[in-house]
Design a protein that fits this description.
Blueprint (H helix, E strand, L loop, with lengths): L1 H7 L3 H18 L7 H24 L6
């Protein structure tokens, strides 16, 4: 598990952004119905994760970051 977490370091924001882009591209292309509440929840979850990972990255990149 430690190797996976080490590999994900610095990549979580990019992975989430790609997933969000593919997911929303699928919505635009009509691959799934956007009236489904699960689809809206997944979109919101991916957005929240992306913002959270971005915030963590900004915090780490500061002068006191590790």
């Amino acid at each position: 598990m430690g190797k996976i977490l080490a590999w994900l370091s610095g990549k979580k924001t990019y992975i989430t952004a790609v997933l969000l882009a593919v997911f929303n591209f699928g919505l635009v292309m009509g691959w799934w119905d956007d009236s489904n509440q699960v689809i809206i929840a997944v979109n919101s979850l991916l957005t929240a994760l992306g913002i959270g990972f971005l915030r963590a990255g900004v915090t780490k990149s500061g002068p006191n970051g590790k």
